[in-house]
Amino acid sequence: MTTTAITMQRLEQLAGVRARTLRHWIRKKVLPKPLGRGRGARYTDEHVLRAGVIRQLRSQHASFRAISAKLAQMSEAEMLAAQPRPVAPASAESVPPPPPEPSYPFRPWEVITLLDGVVLLVNASGNPGLRRIADEIYRYYAGARPRA
């Protein structure tokens, strides 16, 4: 295994776990201490591998004692095999169907902006005279807009 030294921020990205959680795992002694201290602390590929396994086991509600025992028995190859696999993008066949038509009555509304922050909602489907009234209101308020 190569020993590339990385920062806590990079470890977070690679492991998919927040720094606070990683530090907790170090305190619980399931993740080894970093090389160095403070801002100079660096982590290795082993930290990335172990963090991935720990994350998997914690998602299965394993205790820290069980995780520690499991990690002590695992080889590097087993840790690599236990890493989560990336999810393949959805294909056209796996796209879910559209939702069913609504069971409630649907009414199309027209949204007419009269002024900034003032809109008029018009449902002219039942009465064509409403569209004429809305047009008169719009012309009245459109002329009342302040000129820049």
Task: Describe the protein.
The protein has a two-stranded antiparallel sheet with strand order 1-2. The protein has helices spanning 8-15, 19-27, 45-59, 64-73, 76-82, 128-142; strands at residues 110-115, 118-122. It contains 6 helices and 2 strands, in the order H-H-H-H-H-E-E-H. The chain has 2 domains: 8-82, Orthogonal Bundle (Multidrug-efflux Transporter Regulator, Chain: A, Domain 2), CATH 1.10.1660; 110-142.
Summarize the structure.
By secondary structure, the protein is mostly helical. It has six helices and two strands; from the N terminus they run αααααββα.
- What's the number of structural domains? 2
Total of helices = 6
Element-level helix/strand string: HHHHHEEH
Query: What strand order characterises the main sheet?
Result: 1-2
> Unreliable runs, pLDDT <50, ≥5 residues?
none
Q: Ends: how far apart?
A: 68 Å
Provide the gyration radius in Å.
30 Å
CATH architecture of the largest domain, please? Orthogonal Bundle
CATH topology of the largest domain: Multidrug-efflux Transporter Regulator, Chain: A, Domain 2
Helix content, binned percent: 40-55%
* Proportion of beta-strand residues: 5-15%
CATH C-level class of the largest domain: Mainly Alpha
What is the strand tally? 2
Could you say which overall geometry the principal axes of the C-alpha atoms support?
Answer: elongated
Instruction: Report the sheet with the most strands, covering strand number, pairing sense and barrel closure.
Output: 2 strands, antiparallel
The secondary-structure class comes to: mainly alpha
Rounded mean pLDDT score? 82
